[in-house]
């Protein structure tokens, strides 16, 4: 279960993702015209079955079962994918692709480390995740310099990077103590 501070950080990144998703939305359109009146004799013959609303369940429900480092890394990766879909075309196959791939590499290395039971291979994957975090930091700064992302987005990425790095370092220390 995430601590209150971690939950605030997760909520912050979720709000930032929501803002990015809503930034390019079109202005509200006028309401459609009202439907014509229905004949009561036909309306009475219909089945009055109410349906449950359709809900898409993603990895949000697993938050309580996962370590906080996984939750933060996933949110960071999701945020990177959201903000880079609006980046200039000329950068999409260079710095943006590297940024996205590196964010996925962090999660991949975390999962590989989690499934290792022996200390030495687990430490190697944790070290690979740490290297991927450093590369992700570099690519984010390069993307800012090339104007693929703005300063606010870089700030959010940096904040989440430091949080993931802090959680990963704690995990490495606990692995070494075993």
Describe this structure in words.
The protein is an all-alpha fold. 67% of the residues lie in helices and 0% in strands. It has seven helices and no strands. The protein has helices spanning 4-23, 40-43, 68-84, 89-92, 95-115, 119-145, 151-177. α5 packs antiparallel against α6 (119-145).
Which terms summarize this structure?
178 residues, mainly alpha
Mean pLDDT across residues: 80
**DSSP strand tally:** 0
What integer value in Å does the Rg equal? 22 Å
Number of helices: 7
Computed structural class: mainly alpha
DSSP strand (E) fraction? under 5%
Global outline: globular
**End-to-end separation:** 22 Å
DSSP helix fraction: 55-70%
What summary fits the major beta sheet? none
Unreliable spans: 59-63
**Run of helices and strands:** HHHHHHH
Brief overview, please?
The chain has 178 residues and is mostly helical. The chain has seven helices and no strands.
């Amino acid at each position: 279960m995430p601590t209150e501070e971690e939950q605030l950080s997760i909520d912050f990144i979720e709000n930032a993702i929501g803002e990015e998703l809503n930034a390019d939305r079109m202005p509200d359109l006028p309401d459609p015209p009202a439907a014509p009146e229905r004949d009561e004799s036909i309306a009475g013959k219909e089945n009055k079955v109410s349906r449950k609303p359709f809900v898409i369940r993603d990895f949000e429900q697993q938050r309580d079962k996962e370590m906080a480092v996984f939750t933060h890394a996933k949110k960071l990766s999701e945020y990177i994918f959201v903000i880079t879909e609006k980046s200039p075309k000329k950068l999409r196959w260079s710095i943006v692709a590297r940024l996205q791939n590196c964010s996925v590499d962090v999660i991949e290395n975390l999962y590989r480390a989690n499934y290792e039971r022996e200390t030495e291979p687990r430490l190697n994957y944790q070290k690979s995740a740490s290297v991927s975090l450093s590369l992700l930091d570099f690519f984010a700064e390069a993307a800012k310099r090339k104007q693929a992302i703005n300063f606010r987005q870089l700030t959010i990425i940096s904040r989440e990077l430091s949080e993931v790095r802090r959680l990963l370092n704690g995990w490495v220390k606990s692995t070494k103590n075993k």
